[in-house]
């Protein structure tokens, strides 16, 4: 890349790094793995920077790369996540921290693609069409996976929903 | 749709999701790490391409030599390299063609494997103009390789993936809605899985009628 392109990439990286890390964290539930995924997504973006002509498409490109990497990783036998029926005891911390921990842990009980739909819609604020584009599926699939994901979240959270509501 | 049955609406959910990441820790990587990773990936890609070309030259040279030697002995024998046999998928690929050497025995690699891409393009030429889909590095301790393409099939668009999984490793298992998938055992004892996924605005799955044929065409070569 030439100097101008490198400068543009550096500015984009500075502006978007933490947002991408946050999305990765809710997708995988671990900050170290989130950083690995986010870094890999930015490395891939740097390699493709000159081929992405539309600046408006950058966020979508990174989002799509990130989601695909996290969901794909969850399918690997050596990294496959185990779904849990019961949440572990929350850490003895303040109510806000407990509520955040509860949501993150509850998300881990949601199957990866359903979890990705929930994160894209409620953290990234994407509509059905945007989430469908990021996941490479139909809007109908996004709607059904949203419903299934919320049902799974509700089944895991149980009475903790009231705390979630209070935190919101 | 988003009501969780107890009055939890979209705004509340969104606020809860934002609150869950309110305490973002210090990042574990910086701009220089990304540049270093990009340069490493570029070097690895160049090595893979160079290796693939070298392997193709060796296979081609071997085929030509065989044809010449046998031609001297028995008059007229065509080598596999010069006249590939038609397989059941009509791909034009020879069943007896030497398999392209695996990209890497394991470790972390780019998901776009140039050697596998060349086989896919030869088996299904319609994909030769397809662009690589955005991917990241992937860690595969057991080896294997993948190709992921953004494809257009008339009015249909989507993601087309080919995954070569070595013996003893588990390949992709997804069979969600909007996907067409075929898996075939490879000559080396592993599996090759071909998957086509429709994009959100596509009216159907692109190249859905080619998925099984492509898997059958690639299996003897891997």
Automatic annotation (TrEMBL), chain A:
Q: Which UniProt keywords apply?
A: DNA-binding, Sigma factor, Transcription, Transcription regulation
CDD domains the UniProt entry points to? Sigma70_r4 (cd06171)
Q: Give all residue intervals belonging to the RNA polymerase sigma-70 region domain.
A: 13-79
Domain RNA polymerase sigma factor 70 region 4 type: where? Answer: 103-153
| Alphabetized PANTHER family for the sequence | ECF RNA POLYMERASE SIGMA FACTOR SIGM (PTHR43133:SF50), RNA POLYMERASE ECF-TYPE SIGMA FACTO (PTHR43133)
Which NCBIfam families does this one have?
Answer: SigE-fam_strep, sigma70-ECF
Q: Which family does it belong to?
A: Belongs to the sigma-70 factor family. ECF subfamily.
Protein name as it appears in the record: SigE family RNA polymerase sigma factor
What is the organism of origin for this protein? Pseudonocardia ailaonensis
* Taxonomic lineage: Bacteria, Bacillati, Actinomycetota, Actinomycetes, Pseudonocardiales
TrEMBL record, chain B:
Q: Which UniProt keywords apply?
A: Membrane, Transmembrane, Transmembrane helix
Q: Please, which domain of life does this record's source organism belong to?
A: Bacteria
Annotated transmembrane regions: 48-70
The biased composition feature labelled Polar residues covers 186-202
Quick one: where's region Disordered? 186-205
Protein name (record): DUF3515 domain-containing protein
Q: Which organism is it from?
A: Pseudonocardia ailaonensis
């Amino acid at each position: 890349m030439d100097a101008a392109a490198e400068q543009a990439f550096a500015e984009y990286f500075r502006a978007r790094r933490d947002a991408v890390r946050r999305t990765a964290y809710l997708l995988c539930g671990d900050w170290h793995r989130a950083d690995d995924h986010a870094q890999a997504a930015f490395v891939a973006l740097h390699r493709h920077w000159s081929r992405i002509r539309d600046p408006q498409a950058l966020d979508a490109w990174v989002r799509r790369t990130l989601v695909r990497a996290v969901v794909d990783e969850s399918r690997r036998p050596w990294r496959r996540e185990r779904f849990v029926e019961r949440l572990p005891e929350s850490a003895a911390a303040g109510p806000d921290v407990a509520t955040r921990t509860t949501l993150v842990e509850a998300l881990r009980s949601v199957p990866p693609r359903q979890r990705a739909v929930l994160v894209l819609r409620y953290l990234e604020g994407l509509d059905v069409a945007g989430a469908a584009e990021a996941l490479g599926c139909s809007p109908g699939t996004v709607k059904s996976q949203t419903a299934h994901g919320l049902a799974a979240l509700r089944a895991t959270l149980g009475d903790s929903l009231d705390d979630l509501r209070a935190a919101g | 749709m988003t009501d969780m049955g107890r009055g939890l609406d979209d705004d509340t959910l969104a606020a809860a999701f934002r609150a869950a990441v309110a305490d973002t820790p210090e990042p574990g990587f910086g701009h220089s790490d990304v540049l270093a990773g990009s340069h490493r990936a570029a070097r690895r890609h160049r090595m893979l391409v160079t290796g693939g070309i070298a392997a193709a030259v060796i296979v081609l040279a071997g085929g030509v030599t065989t044809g010449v030697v046998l031609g001297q002995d028995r008059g007229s024998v065509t080598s596999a390299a010069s006249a590939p046999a038609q397989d059941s998928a009509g791909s034009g690929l020879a069943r007896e063609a030497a398999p392209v050497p695996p990209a890497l025995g394991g470790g972390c690699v780019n998901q776009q494997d140039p050697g596998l891409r060349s086989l896919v393009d030869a088996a299904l030429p319609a994909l030769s103009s397809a662009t690589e889909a955005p991917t990241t590095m992937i860690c595969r301790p057991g080896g294997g390789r993948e190709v992921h393409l953004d494809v257009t099939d008339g009015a249909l668009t989507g993601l087309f993936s080919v995954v070569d999984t070595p013996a003893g490793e588990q390949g992709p298992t997804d069979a969600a809605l909007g996907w067409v998938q075929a898996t075939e055992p490879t000559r080396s004892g592993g599996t090759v899985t071909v998957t086509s996924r429709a994009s959100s605005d596509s009216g159907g799955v692109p190249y859905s009628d080619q998925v099984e044929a492509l898997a059958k065409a690639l299996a003897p070569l891997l």
